[in-house]
Amino acid sequence: MKSFWTKFGAFLICASVMFTACESDDGNTSGNDSEDTVSECGDVSDSVKEFYEDDAVRLAIQVASQQGGFASGAVEIPDALITRMSDVLTAIHSSEYAARDSVVEVYDVHIYDAYSLDEVVVKVSDSDDASNWGKAWIDGNRFTDNALVDGLMLTYDLTVEDILLFDGEALVTIKAPQPINVFALVNNFNQIEGVIEATTREKSGDGDDIIVTAAGEVDAYNVVYKVAFDDCDNGCQQARMYEFNVNEDCKVSYINTTGDEAPDPDDRD
């Protein structure tokens, strides 16, 4: 009887507006979180897939980087990998864990868009020297007569989006027509003579994250949702993590919840 009233009291607390997520005192979310749930891979509405479209691309880049080799160096992101990351996220979205409710309904966790998925910035000289192929960009041309540069521009259908001149140099924003592995493109540009520096196009601040790593089984992944808060304009000082496993058949297992105390969703910064 005491156990019943303890659980009933916890339910009432979770239902009240004073608390942010239904979580038990031991750190595990309340509800039937001890049993696995299964969602057929990709068997969700288009709106749910679109909900995670940006996240799936960012996770595909993340996983490709972990794999190393050709995968990490490819500018074009394999569609199959993006689809797999979408399946992983939508499987968790379709699960019935209370922890799922925390990351989906309460905190609406997505990967903070710290970098652009379709733009990189290439720094070149503003010199009028005949060997400075970058001057062609500055003069408004897409192609430069540098075989390596023009090869990248043609292969990935890149265009010159913006130019900022500063102290004898030019910051040239290069844009792709679709999301790409911008880190791989940056690496390609940095190997070309005449490029002072190539970087991803980033924005300041910090925020939520989703981290995916191989779980040991074939095509299985450990997924951690990071709810970040506390002065995120200067790098979030606190975070709460919700961890799941998703196997190759999109069977979802809730692992645990760790980190700082659950924040008020209306008071996160």
Main sheet?
A: 5 strands, antiparallel
Strand content: 25-35%
**Biggest sheet: strands side by side, in what order?**
1-9-8-7-6
Shape: elongated
Mean of pLDDT: 88
First and last CA, distance = 41 Å
Low-confidence spans: pLDDT under 50, at least 5 residues?
Answer: 1-21, 24-32
Helix content: 25-40%
Which structural class do the helices and strands define? alpha+beta
**H/E element sequence:** HEHHHHHEHHEEHEEEEE
Gyration radius, in Å:
23 Å
**Number of DSSP-assigned strands:** 9
Number of domains: 2
How many helical stretches?
9
Question: What does the model show?
Answer:
- 33% of the residues lie in helices and 26% in strands.
- By secondary structure, it is of the alpha+beta class.
- The protein folds into 2 domains: 21-109 and 205-263; 115-202, 2-Layer Sandwich (Alpha-Beta Plaits).
- The strands form 2 sheets. The protein has a 5-stranded antiparallel β-sheet. The chain has a 4-stranded antiparallel β-sheet with strand order 3-4-2-5.
- β6 (209-214) and β7 (221-229) form a beta hairpin.
- The two termini are 41 Å apart.
Layout of strands and helices, then pairs:
Layout (H helix, E strand, L loop, with lengths): L1 H14 L21 E2 L7 H6 L1 H15 L1 H5 L5 H16 L3 H9 L8 E11 L8 H5 L8 H9 L3 E8 L2 E7 L6 H9 L4 E8 L6 E6 L6 E9 L8 E9 L4 E9 L10
Helix pairs in contact: 3-5
Which structural traits does this protein have?
single chain; 269 residues; alpha+beta; Alpha-Beta Plaits; 2 domains; five-stranded antiparallel beta sheet; four-stranded antiparallel beta sheet; 9 helices; elongated
